[in-house]
Amino acid sequence: MTIVDTVETTAPLTAQDVLARARAAVPLLRERSVDIERERCLPADVVELLRSTGAFRVALPKDKGGPELNPMEQTQFIETLATGDISAAWCAMIGMDTPLYARFLGEEVSAELFTNDDTVTAGLILPIGRADRVPGGFTLNGRWGFGSGITHADYVVAGAFVHTDGEPEPSPTGQPMHWRILIAKRDQFVVHDTWHTTGLAGSGSRDYEAVDLFVPEAHSFSFATATVSGPNSTPDAILRNMPGVPLGLARAVLDFVRELAVTRTDRMSGVPWSEIYRIQYTIAEAEMELGAVREQVYGSLRTQWELLNAGIELTPDQRVATVLARTNAFRVARSIVIKLADLVATASIYKPSPLDRWLRDAQTMRQHVIAQDQVLQSVGAHLLGGTPSNPFSLGIVQ
User: Fold this and answer.
1) What SUPFAM superfamilies does the record point to (predicted)?
2) CA distances, 280 to each of 131, 272, 289, 389 (Å)
3) Fewer CB within 10 A of the terminal residue: the chain, N end or C end?
4) What region, left, alpha or beta, does residue 239 occupy, with left being phi > 0 and alpha being psi -120 to 50 degrees?
């Protein structure tokens, strides 16, 4: 019997369904965490477990039979899964983007490509590749990294700059380069087994390559132009749920150390950990920091969602609020993991303890482009009228 046999697999239709199923999946994911890391990708039964929770359809619109979770619910869903296994939550976060991509592809094309509500899409959207215009579409060439979840994906997206007659093509809005995202089936790409990393090993974020791959123009899109309207049709829609992973990581670590502290006694003094000032202070400080950043994440998401639903154009300060909260979540989570690993000391370095894996996961996810210092530079530039180095992190695409 695989772990997926222990859960109901009927497709969930409501936010309550998928959140409940995420909670039920947590102990099952914890059981498989060692295997997930060792295999450097999600085992097939773990993928099916995620599918049974509704992970890959949470953003599917209600008029198409989906639960259509809002950003706060999506983030809570990912946060819950992350308390079970970080790599699984990361892959769920990536895989649930398919319905959001569909809003930029168009109704007919989306129906043609995504025939299954649980279709999984992976890949890097940044314009690393080159797309040369040919009759009917593009010839795509390039090699992309960080294809999280590509080992179980149905489709792969690849960002590229468009060239016409060998020259860079300006964007429709007059920018020097035209950034498009092209999509094709996974088996049309060459996947390279490159994911040998410190942390997030189970995400299977391998390199992939396209060699003279023809992609119909209809199977490409720009984040600057959505085919439907609404708050989920903004470029940063795929970024909003990302803080769920570090928030869930920090919660898992805190719960683990709190449980440990209740039963542990200092070997030198014989004093229970629960009575030691240093232990008490560190646990409280970590809870304070996690509570503050969690409120920042959910509060900024809620405010932004209300403004977008009301059709109000965001001010610079309103735009960056979710960006700062997202970046801060990655920073605070790593800080909490380091702090608590130091508290547990040598016991944290032995494999039976998950602290070693959590520490490496925290360090690896902190290197993601969306959590790096360039994001803060971009925020500062946007607030001061300067030039952001990573405008997409702010939801700006021209």
Assistant:
1) Acyl-CoA dehydrogenase C-terminal domain-like (SSF47203), Acyl-CoA dehydrogenase NM domain-like (SSF56645)
2) 57, 11, 14, 42
3) N
4) alpha
Q: What are phi and psi of 313, to 5 degrees?
A: -70, 135
Instruction: Encode the chain (398 residues) as per-residue pLDDT tens digits.
Output: 344 444 444 554 788 999 999 999 999 999 999 999 999 999 999 999 999 999 999 999 888 888 999 999 999 999 999 999 999 999 999 999 999 999 899 888 988 888 888 999 999 999 999 999 999 999 999 999 999 999 999 999 999 999 999 999 998 888 899 999 999 999 999 999 999 999 999 999 999 999 999 999 999 999 988 888 888 888 899 999 999 999 999 999 999 999 999 999 998 899 999 999 999 999 999 999 999 999 999 999 999 999 999 999 999 999 999 999 999 999 999 999 999 999 999 888 887 789 999 999 999 999 999 999 999 999 999 999 999 999 999 999 87
Number of structural domains found in the chain: 3
Same domain, 389 and 296: yes
**Does residue 85 share a domain with residue 143?**
no
Cβ proximity of 244 and 93 under 8 Å: yes
Q: Which amino acid is at 122?
A: A
Q: How many whole angstroms separate alpha carbon 289 and alpha carbon 296? A: 11
Four-CA torsion 232, 104, 247, 84, nearest 10 degrees: 120
Among left, alpha and beta (phi > 0; psi -120 to 50; other), residue 71 is alpha
Contact partners, residue 328, CB within 8 Å, separation at least 6: 293, 296
CATH of the domain at 60: 1.10.540.10
Q: Dihedral sign, CA of 322, 323, 325, 329? A: positive
Kindly state whether residues 271 and 384 are assigned to the same domain.
Answer: yes
State how far Cα 56 lies from the chain centre. Answer: 12
- For 178, phi then psi, to 5°, come to -110, 105
Residue 234 CA to residue 396 CA, distance in Å, equals 9
Q: Which residue range is the domain that position 13 belongs to?
A: 3-101
Q: Are 50 and 25 in contact (CB under 8 A)?
A: yes
- Asked if residue 30 lies in contact with residue 48, where contact means CB atoms within 8 angstroms, the answer is no
